[in-house]
Amino acid sequence: MTLYQPFLDDAIAYLQSRLELMPYPIPSGFEYKSAITGKGKNQEEVVTTSYGFCAPKLRQIRAAHVQGGKSLQVLNFVIFPDLNYDLPFFGADLVTLPGGHLIALDMQPLFRDDPDYQAKYSAPILPIFESYRQHLPWGGDFPEEARPFFSPAFLWTRPKETTDVETHVFAAFKDYLKAYLDFVEQAEPVMDTQALATIKQAQLRYLRYRAEKDPARGMFKRFYGQEWTEEYIHGFLFDLERKLTESVVS
């Protein structure tokens, strides 16, 4: 059992209990990928497993789980809402490297500077965020350019102990996911044409930023090569632009 497998198992089971979960197509060659890294005694197999689902109101629910033994454990778990809802994104980046743990949990807003949007989607989860600050303090420097894409309830932390990941981070992950699905349950479709266009642009802005700045790009290129990596990022992890182009063509 790897560090983040329980997170993934719990999330999928919880999603199944609350949503009409359906498979989301994973392009061929991305469901499972492995590579051998290191030499001699330090040789490790790195395995990347992908999961994809969709549900009413949610365009794509997807996970990338990277298992590389003691030196590397990663779970990237993201939920993208349908374009006719103003829902935020659910984002969990759970990373364990030789130097320690890097944890990022958030409901990433479409419109960070809109007070009404903040009141609707950020304010209700601030108490959850505050409840974990004692055990999961702020993780320090964060790129200035990334700030518009995160909410005031952004849980960014670098736990020293693995037990903190297994307890406090796991609990926070479950609480954020529950709160997100509560938002999904209450969400009503947006009917205004102008508002829909704004939502689409906000989603594309977020996806373009994430695809361009994906911190896993270097890791994946090292393990699996540039061609596989770029196709994985644009064809599965952040595929909205590709999907919109395909729908226009068809």
TrEMBL record:
Record keyword Oxidoreductase present: yes
MF term (GO), any: phycoerythrobilin:ferredoxin oxidoreductase activity
EC number annotated for this UniProt entry: 1.3.7.3
Catalytic activities: (3Z)-phycoerythrobilin + oxidized 2[4Fe-4S]-[ferredoxin] = 15,16-dihydrobiliverdin + reduced 2[4Fe-4S]-[ferredoxin] + 2 H(+)
Keywords: Oxidoreductase
InterPro entries listed in its UniProt record: Ferredoxin-dep_bilin_Rdtase, Phycoerythrobilin_Fdx_Rdtase
GO biological process, alphabetically ordered: phytochromobilin biosynthetic process
Keyword Transmembrane helix attached: no
Family indicated by similarity: Belongs to the HY2 family.
HAMAP family xref list: PebB
Function: Catalyzes the two-electron reduction of the C2 and C3(1) diene system of 15,16-dihydrobiliverdin.
Name listed for the protein in its UniProt record: Phycoerythrobilin:ferredoxin oxidoreductase
The organism of origin for this protein: Brasilonema sennae CENA114
